[in-house]
Amino acid sequence: MISITTLTFFRFPNLKSKLWAFGQMQYAHFFLAKSKGLNFYKLMGSGRDIGFSLFPDWGVYALLGVWESEQAANIFFNHSAIYKHFQKISSEQWTIFMKPIQTKGLWSGGNPFTPSLALDASNPLIAVITRATIKTNKLLKFWRFVPISQMPIQRGCEGLIYTKGVGEVPIVQMATFSVWENLAALKKYAYNSLEHREAIKKTHQIDWYKEEMFTRFQPFKTMGNWEGKDVLAQYLKS
Asked: Which residues contact residue 48 at a Cβ distance below 8 angstroms, ignoring those fewer than 6 apart?
């Protein structure tokens, strides 16, 4: 069996549903922890802006899952009572199925992603999760620099299909998820952007992360819609 990763975004359109979703950040763990074949998961809130954000988006939450197989993930999405409840309350759900390509670092003390041996050479899509726990005594310096580091994304990056900031704990534990048309587009952003290169330099100089992780994935399937459409549909046509 080949381990796969899923990331699901949920949109909650009104106050009642947003309050319900906020409550699930505590109560849903009881059900998720018992999901068969789910080896690792994170239930996360999101930021109002793209990338890291101090301001929460109370209408969007995310569920990351690492599954022992694609079959286990499909069973969860098709039959799980907790997922069906999320479906019922939310107005949109969008799930990206991914195979890990390369991973470095730690998340909650371990690395849940095992690089896949079953990648599709004809599929150029690249998804990235960058995740960090920020040291308490470095929070001010970190958040002062965030607007500068994210200027390239704000201006628009060639080949960037979708990006969203998510996180387990606001301000302290943050992550970004992005999907790119190909590796060349990702590398152009990473190595040609002065602001991004400066962010990497400061990461080493200031040492503001208590824990960090960088993982690349190959998206291979999606389910549902986001903002009225399947964002990756045109890229994953067979």
From this structure: 55, 56, 57
